């Protein structure tokens, strides 16, 4: 059994996952491209700014890798894009926390400044929100596949309580919705 077989597929939510991954991936690629265009040294921590954020070639490279990864998720779509968005969003938040502790220290080889930390938190939350959209909430609609998956007993009970339909066999019996009274139906 594989995880992808267990997760429900919902085409309406898949568009949110795709657009979210695509948008955030493009933002990261633009930032990386601007960093590369400035021709910075790989681990320079003197701090050249691009769009208000300090950067170097190492940070631009990482931004390009994550941007391309998110674009791949946008192309693949579905549950893969959702899980990828949640994972990358979590990594961005964790990166923001790590770099918050190494500001103005030699371990800050990506040349993060406070604006980079804030950007990392905000971008991580945006990416993770795109991934969690329609999956994580206490107020999901009854037809949401993630809610149905979490509440299998309730979904089965609601299916059993469906209104009865008239019997197609014409013998006056009524059957629960979803069953037919054709050949092979046994009577009581």
Q: Would you tell me the overall average pLDDT?
A: 75
Percentage of helical residues?
Answer: 55-70%
Poorly predicted ranges: 181-188
Quantity of strands, as a count: 4
Strand numbers in spatial order across the main sheet: 1-2
The largest pleated sheet is described as: 2 strands, antiparallel
Query: What structural class results from the helix and strand content?
Result: mainly alpha
Structure description:
It is a single chain. With 188 residues, the protein is mostly helical. 58% of the residues lie in helices and 6% in strands. The protein has helices at residues 3-6, 11-37, 57-76, 78-101, 114-132, 145-150, 152-160, and strands at residues 48-50, 53-55, 164-166, 174-176. It has a two-stranded antiparallel sheet with strand order 1-2. Strands 3-4 form a two-stranded antiparallel sheet. The longest helix is centred in the first third of the chain and has 27 residues, at 11-37.
